[in-house]
Amino acid sequence: MVLLIIALAAVALLPMISNNVEQTRIQQERSELQQYKQILLGYVSANGRFPCPATHPSLGGGATDSLGLGNPSPPGITNCAVQLGFLPARSLNLTTTNPAPQGLLPTPFGAGASDPRFMYRYALTNLAAPGAIEGGGAPPAGLIHAFANVNGSFPMNGLGAGQIRLALNADLLNGRGLSVCATRTNITASSCGDISNVVLTDLVAVIFSSGANVINNSLDEAENIEQARQRIYILPPALRRESGSPEGIFDDQFIGISFPEYLAALSAGGWTIRQ
């Protein structure tokens, strides 16, 4: 009888223990997102640009990038293979012992070959060379054409800090930055629609995790992974875990890097931004 009571008590405690473990992993995930944001900004300080995302065959990447190298060759001149991919462990000099594919950073929810990985995306700009700055004006050849691809030192061709800020800010404000929205309602290819739907906007990079369930049957999570709109992510005000939800369980988490943070990282690294 005593053993039966103990067994019943243990069974009753299982959901509580499981929930505590999940909450611990969620908190760890948030902490790691903060940590990786600072590491990315450190990379910007050292290299004058963001690293290219690591790719994997499941995202259309090749064998080299699937190892988490993530760098264009030669660095800073050619386009990245992808805008959206995985956080590149090797480019960031981070060690990971997770199973193949190597070099991809697992989230706290698993380290198996098919388990969740931290994903990462940088924003494009319209400052391709040659080309026009959105809103008018033509930059000289050699300007950056993505936040992860810088031709030579920063800034290029004598452009001052004010000009670069105006040009890149114009790009961000004209829909070329990344945004995180509270719902899918009224979103477009480049904006959250109504201002009340905005969680984060005008970002130059985002790091995110798909949580424990990767994609499940949540339409919002599918939007984040499939990226049909490319520059828009969905993050409801609270993690949705109700099992009866018609859209499934949502547990994605995000952290963004703003344009001012990007410029501050460049300045901290000693990159000359002439006035």
Q: Please give the radius of gyration in angstroms.
A: 21 Å
N-to-C CA distance: 81 Å
Unreliable runs, pLDDT <50, ≥5 residues? 57-78, 126-146, 150-159
Number of strands: 6
Instruction: Characterize the main sheet.
Output: 6 strands, mixed
What is the average per-residue confidence, as pLDDT, rounded to a whole number?
Answer: 62
Q: Which of globular, elongated, flat, extended, rod-shaped describes the shape?
A: globular
The number of helical runs is: 4
The helix-and-strand class reads: alpha+beta
Helix content: 25-40%
Strand content: 5-15%
The arrangement of helices and strands along the chain is: HEEHEEHEEH
InterPro entries: Pilin-like
Protein name: Type II secretion system protein
Organism: Parvibium lacunae
Could you give the topology of this structure?
Layout: H1 2-47, E1 84-86, E2 119-122, H2 161-176, E3 178-181, E4 198-209, H3 219-226, E5 232-234, E6 253-258, H4 259-268
Parallel strand pairs: 3-5
Antiparallel strand pairs: 1-2, 2-4, 3-4, 4-6
Q: Any key phrases for this structure?
A:
single chain; alpha+beta; about 280 residues; globular; six-stranded mixed beta sheet
